[in-house]
Design goal:
Elements: E1 25-26, H1 38-50, H2 60-74, E2 83-86, H3 89-100, E3 106-109, H4 116-122, E4 127-130, E5 134-136, E6 141-143, H5 146-154, E7 158-164, H6 176-188, E8 192-196, E9 223-227, E10 241-244, H7 248-260, H8 270-280, H9 282-306, E11 311-312, E12 320-324, H10 332-343, E13 345-346, E14 348-349, E15 360-364, H11 369-389
Parallel strand pairs: 1-13, 3-4, 3-7, 7-8, 8-9
Antiparallel strand pairs: 2-10, 5-6, 9-10, 11-12, 12-15, 14-15
Helix pairs in contact: 1-8, 2-8, 3-4, 3-7, 5-6, 9-11, 10-11
Bound molecules: pyridoxal-5'-phosphate (PLP).
Protein name: cysteine-S-conjugate beta-lyase
InterPro entries: Aminotransferase_I/II_large, C-S_lyase_PatB-like, Class-II_PLP-Dep_Aminotrans, PyrdxlP-dep_Trfase, PyrdxlP-dep_Trfase_major, PyrdxlP-dep_Trfase_small
Enzyme class: lyase
């Protein structure tokens, strides 16, 4: 049994998440408050003890570790020559946008979506084109409007789509049929499909995650898949990701970009950390999933019983909970800053994710249950006070 209950003080450790006031409880940016698996720490210590840290590049043991993780966990094996290392998923997205599309092109996303996608597009002089996910306010579920998606993919200036599977912030895992449909539309309209699968290992129940590279061969010639141990194993500062591109010409093109952007060189812990994670820390991930699932159920039942003005969107993946606050406000940024000011609870305002995010808050529940309970109490108090003043 691994330890997912100890509270580890993270203030004054250079943590972005915990750079907050003494009374504040951060439940925003996507990293976890759990200590990394001892198997990974051992591999890192061994590396540090070796004491010489010259330039490095990944070899077969790295690619075998990634490929066999996908075989074991997801029943799909990427070919080793499809893979290369990069220093992160977001850097890969930005680099691919620059290499694969032209200034002024449209890059399609499905809002509400991980806000940094917008930066990767806009900061490179491309336009964001969103085919917004459609929200059913009765079931609190999202779905894709495929007619709208096709219309937007068919626009001559649309040259790339960035898919998020599982989808941050709504916690939805796209089904294999949905992936095939998206993919066929991208192929039909000559759009490169970049699939960000960084949350793929954190699926709790229901539809299982289908790696995009596992689709039939004719459907994977236009895809760029990004995976990483960073969310799964809580090693976001490791800065190690793997890019999976089955088509050789596309792979060479994106790989060229990664190299000219200087994103292909691992730091001293990236290779041993990734290998240890994928080959030795599987059991830690399985236990983690149980912990997050318990936390998710705690959040859902607490909100149902204690905060009837909010609704937790049913989700089956990621440790990010998407909370419908539309009964309270149509400006979740205002609600977020009010709650932070009054209770110290720091969650993410849904506004940054676009689409109908102005009606939602996002709460990171990858913390010991006692910390989540503290967050829920603060949320309850914050909502009660907000109702009094609004
Ligand atoms: C969907 C998604 N992609 C990418 C990232 C960040 O990836 P990286 O740290 O490898 O750049 C995050 C972090 O929250 C994320 O949620």
């Amino acid at each position: 049994m691994y330890d997912f209950t100890s509270i580890i003080p993270r203030r004054n450790t250079d943590s972005v998440k915990w750079d907050v006031k003494p009374n504040e409880l951060p439940m925003w940016v996507a990293d976890m408050d759990f200590k990394v698996a001892p198997e990974i720490l051992d591999a890192m210590r061994k590396k540090v003890d070796f004491g010489i840290f010259g330039y490095e590049e990944p070899h077969d043991d790295y690619f075998d570790a990634v490929a066999s993780w996908y075989t074991k966990e997801h029943h799909a094996t990427p070919k080793k020559d499809w893979l290369f290392l990069s220093t992160g998923v977001v850097p890969t997205i930005s680099s691919s946008v620059r290499r694969v599309t032209n200034v002024g092109d449209n890059v399609l996303v499905q809002a509400p979506v991980y806000n940094i996608f917008y930066n990767s597009i806009v900061n490179n002089g491309r336009h964001v084109l969103s085919s917004d996910l459609v929200y059913d306010a009765t079931t609190h579920q999202y779905h894709i409007d495929f007619d709208d998606l096709e219309t937007k993919l068919a626009e001559p200036l649309t040259t790339m789509m960035i898919l998020c599977n599982p989808h941050n912030p709504i916690g939805k895992v796209w089904t294999k049929d949905e992936l095939i449909k998206i993919n066929q539309l991208c192929i039909k309209h000559s759009v490169t499909l970049l699939s960000d699968e960084i949350h793929g290992d954190l699926v709790f129940k229901g539809t299982d995650y289908t790696p995009m590279f596992s689709l039939p061969e004719n459907l994977i010639q236009n895809i760029i898949v990004c995976v990483s141990p960073s969310k799964t194993f809580n090693v976001t500062a490791l800065h190690a990701a793997t890019v999976i591109i089955p088509n050789e010409a596309l792979r060479n093109k994106v790989n060229r970009g990664i190299n000219t952007d200087e994103l292909g060189e691992p730091n001293l812990l990236a290779i041993p950390g990734t290998i240890a994670a994928y080959t030795k820390a599987g059991r830690w991930v399985h236990e983690l999933r149980e912990q997050i699932r318990t936390n998710y159920e705690t959040v859902t039942s607490f909100c149902e019983s204690n905060i009837p003005d909010v609704t937790v969107v049913p989700s089956t993946a990621t440790y990010l909970v998407w909370i419908d606050v539309s009964k309270l406000t149509s400006d979740s940024a205002q609600l977020e800053s009010f709650i932070r000011q009054e209770t110290g609870l720091y969650v993410s305002a849904g506004t940054v994710y676009g689409g109908n995010g102005n009606l939602f808050l996002r709460m990171n529940i990858a913390s010991p249950t006692s910390m989540v309970a503290d967050g829920l109490q603060r949320l309850k108090n914050g909502v009660a006070q907000f109702k009094q003043v609004k």
